[in-house]
């Protein structure tokens, strides 16, 4: 392959890894360097990938958390240590997308514990939060997950046939299963689409590849309880959900619960919560 194409390919890969994991691009460059050193002595196929996977995994587990804590006051949300506060998909943790300020972790642990009193086993299953480093560095595609104070939490669902509450969200990535407006409720998603924001449902398209929505029904009882606990917790500031859910759950008195802008992704599949 010509050198210019090789450099371009590595540049694209560096950008992609940096966008989705923050540290992956740098680890890739380090892997290329180590690979070059070793290949000079003895050619080994696939070595750079092995370097990358091992270095990325070790850095993610052992180096990123203490550095993020001391330099940026951010901690990784529990992966296995708290059964009431878990990632919806472990990929979010492995990609370093689940770092928050310690105050946000504390508030989430408290709400998760309160949730157990009424619905034992209904954990907070979270998705994207923030990267470990640099204030103002956004976690794509979210623009406001940039200072360690934001997190997305998925809604609850039930098996449509049996009515049994589901563990985690049926959508593999936790987004995209809409709790749509019922007849008589204000349909904000429809309103936004009519304004020309046709793309706001792309999460739903991705979710459809991994699960069939007909097999599930929205668990209003558990989701409503979680929303009321979040709304009542003094640590939280801005909370984003679609207007029909705010009304359905009786949260009209909370001025900090607002809809997202029309150009942002829908919030009738998850709630976006920010620390004050
Ligand atoms: Zn969010």
Give a verbal description of the structure.
The radius of gyration is 21 Å and the shape is globular. α2 (24-41) runs antiparallel to α3 (47-72) and α5 (102-118) crosses α8. The chain has helices at 3-21, 24-41, 47-72, 90-94, 102-118, 188-194, 202-210, 220-232, 243-248; strands at residues 75-76, 85-87, 99-100, 124-126, 150-154, 157-159, 216-218, 236-240, 257-258, 270-275. The chain has two domains: 3-72, no CATH class; 78-275, Muramoyl-pentapeptide Carboxypeptidase, domain 2, CATH 3.30.1380. The mean pLDDT is 93. It has a four-stranded mixed β-sheet, with helices on one face. The chain has a two-stranded antiparallel sheet with strand order 1-3. Strands 2-4 form a two-stranded parallel sheet. It is of the alpha/beta class. Zinc ion binds next to β5.
Estimate the mean pLDDT confidence. 93
CATH-derived architecture of the largest domain:
2-Layer Sandwich
Task: Summarize the helix and strand pattern as letters.
Answer: HHHEEHEHEEEHHEHEHEE
Form type: globular
Helix and strand composition category: alpha/beta
What's the CATH class of the largest domain, please? Answer: Alpha Beta
Low-confidence stretches: none
Helix coverage percent: 40-55%
Looking across the biggest beta sheet, what order are the strands in? 5-10-8-9
Number of strands: 10
| Number of helical segments with 4 or more residues | 9
N- to C-terminal distance: 52 Å
Instruction: Give the percentage of residues in beta strands.
Output: 5-15%
Radius of gyration, in angstroms, nearest whole number:
21 Å
How is the biggest beta sheet arranged? Answer: 4 strands, mixed
Bound compounds, each kind once, are: zinc ion
> Would you tell me which CATH topology of the largest domain applies?
Muramoyl-pentapeptide Carboxypeptidase, domain 2
Any idea how many domains? 2
